[in-house]
From TrEMBL:
The keyword Transferase applies. This is 5-methyltetrahydropteroyltriglutamate--homocysteine methyltransferase. Residues 9-186, 200-395 form the Cobalamin-independent methionine synthase MetE C-terminal/archaeal domain. The lineage of its organism: Bacteria, Bacillati, Actinomycetota, Actinomycetes, Micrococcales. GO terms for molecular function: 5-methyltetrahydropteroyltriglutamate-homocysteine S-methyltransferase activity; zinc ion binding. Its EC number is 2.1.1.14. InterPro entries: Met_Synth_C/arc (IPR002629), UROD/MetE-like_sf (IPR038071). It comes from Kocuria varians (Micrococcus varians). It is an enzyme of class 2 (transferase). Pfam families: Meth_synt_2 (PF01717). One of its GO terms (biological process) is methylation.
């Protein structure tokens, strides 16, 4: 994960649009019509193509598009999390979809309880918009059932993650890419599955840390960077009803950070990047917790780089947070310069200006231009690739000014 030396480098958060062929293979795999090796045949070709596309656009730090993370369809806001259901033991399937099934859990002072999606505070505030199928807030996503934890968690994804690693490394070699990453679920986000086995929140989160560590280690042992996907650090704020105090929320979140650092112990920081976001559905996000409350806790995570939303309408102003919160020596940031939450393709000049804002507060060598969140499952493929092109062109313009 090198710092910039002569130009602004570019990357993205991970998920990229799947091809129709891969979407069909995913559907057949989830229906039990094909097994993992047969799905792998579709993945082999898909990853070669998406890495080639990234390199042709000019992306420096590439990945497999998260193609190995099973998706439910062209629109899927949860593949980053749902893929783990195929890689963990101790789960029992249910027919519950937490985006649609309301559980009216309420928090009490000092005691945090996560509610289901329909009972979240942003959804309560904009109930009509969220439930209007023509409004575009939740688009036309397929129903995805989440399992529950009924026994001790184990990691069963060795074959799957080995396939992710092999495919991206092979595709990098074919396309001249020297830097690559693979995304993996954080313990805190893993622990959001309904739990009927572990006695305490702490036991659950640390059990998730133990199993997900196997995936992190497999990735870094093969020379790739692991990106820890952890919307739970920021997004869970909206999932608590009624709104807690910031202090209580940070205590709740600190356990998840400590468990993540436990899972990352002894792994090389230069091969670890952390992704924070406030949830990738296209809602108003008026109940997002501001970055200024989260940044210091985020910086305690044992990663070299920190990825976060920086161009969305709710968080585009937060570059100024870094005027008061100094980036530690040797660290880098991956601010999102283009957003997953709008169909408008950002002008390269706007991208350049955003990069320059971050360079002014953390240093030009420490800014790697990225996306707010994954573009796959959120945007049409044509728009997603156009945004990556604008990102690269904006980085080129900024580089001319900064170096």
């Amino acid at each position: 994960m090198p710092h910039n030396t002569d130009r602004i480098q570019t990357t993205h958060v991970g998920s990229l649009p799947r091809t129709p062929e891969l979407l069909e293979a995913n559907n057949r795999f989830q229906a039990g019509e094909i097994d993992l090796p047969q799905l792998g045949e579709a993945l082999d070709e898909g990853v070669k193509e998406i890495v080639r596309t990234q390199r042709e656009i000019g992306i420096d730090i590439v990945n497999d598009g998260e193609y190995g993370h099973t998706t439910s369809g062209a629109v899927d806001y949860g593949a980053w999390w749902n893929y783990s259901f195929h890689r963990l033991g101790g789960l029992t399937p249910t027919d519950e979809d937490r985006w649609n099934d309301a559980e009216k859990h309420r928090s009490s002072p000092g005691h945090i309880v996560l509610t289901s999606f329909p009972d979240r505070r942003d959804r309560e505030r904009f109930r009509d918009a969220y439930e209007d199928p023509t409004a575009g807030v939740l688009a036309h996503r397929n129903t995805v059932s989440q399992p529950k934890i009924t026994g001790p968690l184990t990691y069963t994804g060795q074959e799957a993650v080995a396939g992710d690693i092999r495919r991206v490394k092979d595709a990098m070699a074919l396309n001249g890419a020297t830097q690559g990453f693979v995304a993996a679920l954080s313990p805190g986000s893993c622990a959001r599955v309904k739990n009927e086995y572990y006695a305490t929140d702490e036991e659950l989160v640390y059990a998730c840390a133990d199993v997900m560590r196997e995936e992190y280690k497999a990735i870094v042992d093969e020379g790739l960077t692991v990106q820890i996907d952890d919307p739970s650090i920021a997004e869970s704020w909206d999932q608590i009803n009624p709104e807690p105090t910031v202090e209580d929320y940070l205590d709740f979140t600190r356990l998840r950070v400590e468990a993540l650092n436990y899972a990352l112990r002894d792994l090389p920081q230069e091969q670890i990047r952390f992704h924070l976001c406030w949830g990738s559905w296209h809602g108003p996000h008026t109940t997002d917790l501001e970055l200024k409350y989260l940044v210091d806790l985020m910086l305690t995570i044992n990663a070299q780089g920190y990825s976060f939303e920086a161009s969305s309408p709710r968080h585009g102003h937060e570059w100024k947070v870094w005027e008061e919160h100094k980036l530690p020596e040797g660290k880098v940031v991956y601010p999102g310069m283009v957003s997953h939450s709008t169909n408008g393709v950002e002008h390269p000049e706007l991208v350049a200006q955003r990069i320059e804002q971050y360079a002014s507060v953390v240093g030009r060598e420490n800014v790697i231009a990225s996306t707010d969140c994954g573009l796959g499952g959120r945007l049409h493929p044509q728009i997603a690739l156009a945004k990556l092109g604008s990102l690269v062109e904006g980085a080129r313009i900024a580089s001319q000014r900064l170096f």
